Amino acid sequence: MNVFSRPGFIPRVMRYCLVACGLVLTQRLVPAAEVPGLTNSPAAVERDAAVTAVPGARLDYAPGQAPKFWSVAAADTIMARWPDFSQAYFNAWTYVNGYELYGFELLSKATGDPKYFDYAKRYIDEFVDAAGNFRGVRNAKGQTNTPSFGNLDNLMTGNTLVWMYEVTKDQRYHVAADKIRRALDHYPRNRNGGFWHNQRMNGQMWIDGVFMGEMFVIRYGKSIGDRAWCWDEATRQIGLYAQLAQRGDSGLYLHGFFEPGHGGKLPGWADPQTGLSPEVWSEGLGWYALVLTETLADLPKDHPRRAELEGIYRRLAAGLKRTQDPASGRWYQVVDKGDRPDNWTDTSGSAMFTYTLAKGIELGLLDPAVYGPVVAKGYRGIIANAKINDRGLLDIYSACDGVGVQVDYAHYVHFKKSVNAKEAVAGFLWATAMVEGPRLAELRTK
Fold first, then answer.
1. Which of 261, 360, 405, 438 could form a disulfide with 256 if both were Cys (CB 3.0 to 4.6 A apart)?
2. Residue 201's CB: how many other CB atoms inside 10 A?
3. Is residue 131 within 8 Å of residue 172, measured between CB atoms?
């Protein structure tokens, strides 16, 4: 069932998710203090991460004016910048392609417009041949990128592959998805069963990887096969991370965990006694929140770990409500240290949290009277950092691009920021598509 057509979704979200207008921006790269909503940024200048966009890309959106649908403007901008999505960002097949294309899937289901599915299909078809084998595609750097699955990041786009199978029933997508699933049969794990983030990162579990791997696993189990294994594995990975990496009893989770004894040396970020990284990073916690929410959306009610995951989700939601910045409606780069003067509110994680809480209301996991205002403030906060530039394209500010596990607080809050950070674009698309969902139905062909 389309998430936007589930009983009770429209009245809940329409009541509590307010629609606000965006603010004016200029096309140039500007000091952060000159951009409305970004005055708490420690970074002096933001670079544009959309460096591989086609030259001269433009749309008809009015510069400085709020579009009717921020989600549609975000997707239109992605398609304008990259008519061939394999040329986006740093490689042809990466987690970010699947992450952004899941937002396209939300729009496809909400609006019925075939352009979103068609765009995703053109991308997947570059990589999957008639027999279901993966083939190489030249990326924006002119290098051939053939999908491989020795790291969890590359599993994420398998989610889009399964979407193609769900819609078309074309067996080549099934065959290709099977290849990704089989890559997990001998994937390296810690002694507790937790997947390494990368086959070369001995003993390292990253919160990012829970999202990257399990978003594919739950989709594969739901629509293709190995259903029991997939639900058991997804809930296992989510539950393990909660056991390992919670900050006290806050419901918030640290970025990384390292287990010694696998031949790898202690990473610089890992505490020698606990193996834990030092901070709760906004975007990483956001990925965990997303996969937890998406798992609960379809996890059978009688699954033995259902109650455990619901408890993790509600503790996380309470932690997010507690740490939301009341002034901006966003969340801080280091989520639980908003009192630090050099901390700043991150659009990427804030978008993820906005989606997560809105989806929790839709699923009946959260009280709309309690969390609806949190969602409304989050939505207003993220669109305040989104601006239509002088070429009619949507730019998104106040986020970092490609952050790994950092050694301390200072490295998180002073990591170089980017306009149109790829993860922020994807999170923004998810959140706005969710909140705007009831109104997006206006676009359906009558």
1. 405
2. 20
3. yes
Closest Cα to residue 419, out of 92, 157, 34? 34
pLDDT at 20 over 90: no
**What residues pair up with 400 in beta bridges, in sequence order?**
417
Strand partners, 189: 195
How do 47-48 and 417-419 pair as beta strands?
A: parallel
Position 382, amino acid: I
In the predicted model, is pLDDT for residue 42 greater than 70? no
Cα 430 to Cα 361: distance, rounded to the nearest angstrom: 15
**How much is the pLDDT for 446?**
52
Q: Three-class SS of residue 138?
A: strand
Q: How confident is the model at residue 16, as a pLDDT? A: 40
- Contacts with 78 (C-beta within 8 Å, 6 or more apart), sequence order: 85, 88, 100, 425, 429
74 to 12, 70, 272, 357, 430: CA distances (angstroms): 24, 6, 43, 21, 10
pLDDT tens-digit readout, 371-412: 999 999 999 999 999 999 999 999 999 999 999 999 999 999
Question: Which of 218, 117, 108 minimizes the C-alpha distance to 170?
Answer: 117
pTM here is 0.91
> 3-443 has which CATH code?
1.50.10.10
Q: Are 79 and 57 in contact (CB under 8 A)?
A: no
Determine the Cα–Cα distance for residues 305 and 293; give it in Å rounded to an integer. 14
Q: Copy the structure tokens of residue 397.
A: 């500010």
